[in-house]
Fold this sequence. Notes:
4-stranded parallel beta sheet
Amino acid sequence: xxxxxxxxxxxxxxxxxxxxxxxxxxxxxxxxxxxxxxxxxxxxxxxxxxxxxxxxxxxxxxxxxxxxxxxxxxxxxxxxxxxxxxxxxxxxxxxxxxxxxxxxxxxxxxxxxxxxxxxxxxxxxxxxxxxxxxxxxxxxxxxxxxxxxxxxxxxxxxxxxxxxxxxxxxxxxxxxxxxxxxxxxxxxxxxxxxxxxxxxxxxxxxxxxxxxxxxxxxxxxxxxxxxxxxxxxxxxxxxxxxxxxxxxxxxxxxxxxxx
Length: 259
């Protein structure tokens, strides 16, 4: 979704945070890491609205939309706050929030309100980058149950015959889920520092996938890099948040995008 009006106004990045809160902070840091700057004023303006209390769990809604609270309403409120604050280029650092059942509502909200913004889709940006850089690969997708269930990555990657998305076995998906969601050791509960148990879960699953011949992994939940960054294994990881950050910087200040 791209803006067609007011192209001359100051370009400001807007981040819908809170899914989880550390994921929003991580995207902001990755945006700044993409900028070739010599002084404060070289960095783009960034506004983050983090309202986790207003955005229920995305996976619960995807799996049971009739009974679970709808996260779209809180996301839409955050987008409105960003627009009111002047944001022109908006992104949501949550893969699961881009599942069709949620994203369709958000896009309709933006269109009905005629917001003059560019909305960046983290899944689409990841697909474009992977298509350009990973042809001929079988790539393992690590994600939440909601992202797996919605097949949102397949929506894009099934168009590209030279890339195959591979999902772990169901018991390994549970290990990934626990590494993110467990209230005893998951990233949502223990973001700083990350627990050793969460890292160990990713290590167990990744070593199984390596043994099957896979070496490239999409970290398809914005909280996964917080834990997988501690792995020391012979793999290539694809970080959608980093790809999204580069796309945002390229849009608002292309001359300052690091090579």
